[in-house]
Amino acid sequence: MNNWYDYTILVAILSNVSAIIICYYFLSNILFAKKQSKKVRYLILFAITCIFMSILLFFKQSPVFVFVSMGTFLSIGLLLFQGNVLMRILYSIFFVAFGGLAETITGIIVALTFSFSLNELYQYPIYYTLVAVGSKVVLFVFIKFAIRIIRKQIQFSSLLESIALFSIPFVSLIVCLNVYFMVVKVQGSELIGIISVGALLYINIMIFAILKVLDHESNKTLEYKNANIQLELEQKHYKEILEKNYEVRGLWHDMNNHVITMQYLIKNHACDEINEYLRQLHDVLQNAVDHNLSGNNVVDALLNYKIKFASNKNINIVHYIAIPEKLKMNSIDLSIILGNILDNAIEGCLRDSRDDEDKIIKFNMYYKKESLLIDVENTVDEKTIKKSGNKLVSSKISKHNKSGYGISNVKQVLDNYGGNMVTQILDDRFKCTILIPLD
User: Do 50 and 170 contact (CB within 8 A), yes or no?
Assistant: First the structure.
């Protein structure tokens, strides 16, 4: 490695090996791997890499290398992953395009920073290395964003935050190189240049160390908040159980009086009064008993509470549930979804001022083919539905003059699971359908 050519070959090999690793990482996050052992998969990947590097040594300066590079990434997609062939090809081409874009962007930034043309950059080892390393960092960041966008796990705010964080080390790297060359060339002191670069490096390390600590604390705070929500839900359910038990004990205590009353009414042939008395007693008994609707504690707790609340508002909830006792879903997330969509259905019924309409909520919940389907339908006065273009918006206004928190929270939970929600207005009914993959 005593000449410039050997150095560029080494940097090119390391750069392209990095690209192959990033390509495999990208495809493994969006495609299903073929049914191969890890050993076989890595051997195939190693063979592809060796063939690619061998061709690189012969065709580095030739246009043939571009097609060989394309073929290499296509081979990774076709040989190591399964599924639709067209999709595998498209994702491989997508990666090649991103790789070229990352290298072009990095080259332009470095060229503008140090006042060189793109061709001149490759004549200096330090700049050539900077473009090679920087382009792979940019490519990896692009790929991380692409994975999250494909999986629908990214929001615009988090995208801006990630770009801002990435810009810190990138800009610092450019400043480091400028400071180093200015000090060495102007003052002729290499030691001061190294110290200056080290100081900037230290600042970067400390910034990310502090951010890591803050992120850790933020996650802990979120965990505590979720735990408190779960505890409040369980305490609320426990309190309801105690209240129900108290009511049942009271009913048993009064049962003798009920029997005496009905015997008196029967003796006096008061059939209408007996029917009315039995109806009222039936309502009291139904209201005092919790129903084991599904076997899932979160679902049963919320539904029993909402059924009782709706009943007090003369709203009838008709339900059908077919789910396992244990779902592959966080209890907090499940309670957020069920709580908010049932609240919206109840409020939709309450806003219906038509006296001639029965207020009904139909609630269906199924688990089929590793997916959870929730279907809620409620009677509604269409005049109370607000629209923004073709979209439905919340009719609820809080004391802080903000609306739609419930639906926003539901959508955020659905995004985390790759779920989907569809709302429709069907005559005098409002329908909300939610599908959540739980594989």
Answer: no
Query: Is it the case that residue 13 has pLDDT exceeding 60?
Result: yes
With H, G, I as helix, E, B as strand and everything else as coil, classify residue 288. helix
- Calpha distance 160→95 (Å, rounded): 22
CB atoms < 10 A from the CB of 426, how many?
10
The reported pLDDT for the residue numbered 125 is 74
- The residue behind tokens 């990435």 is 166
How far apart are the C-alpha atoms of 273 and 266, rounded to whole Å?
9
pLDDT tens by residue, 194-213? 677 677 777 777 877 787 78
Partners of residue 425 on adjacent β-strands: 430
Strands 360-368 and 32-33: unpaired
**For position 397, what pLDDT does the model report?**
43
In the chain, the percentage of residues whose pLDDT exceeds 70 is 69
The letter for the amino acid at 431 is K
> Which of 136, 196, 105 lies closest to 16 in space, CA to CA?
136
* 326 within a domain of the structure (yes/no): yes
Question: In whole angstroms, what is the distance from residue 6 CA to residue 164 CA?
Answer: 36
Rounded CA-CA distance 144/223 in Å is: 25
Residue ending a domain, among 216, 243, 268, is 216
The domain containing residue 384 runs over which residues?
290-439
Residues ≥6 apart with Cβ < 8 Å to 281: 258
How many CB atoms lie under 10 A from the CB of residue 19? 23
Q: Is residue 228 in some structural domain?
A: no
Asked whether residue 339 is assigned to any structural domain, the reply reads: yes
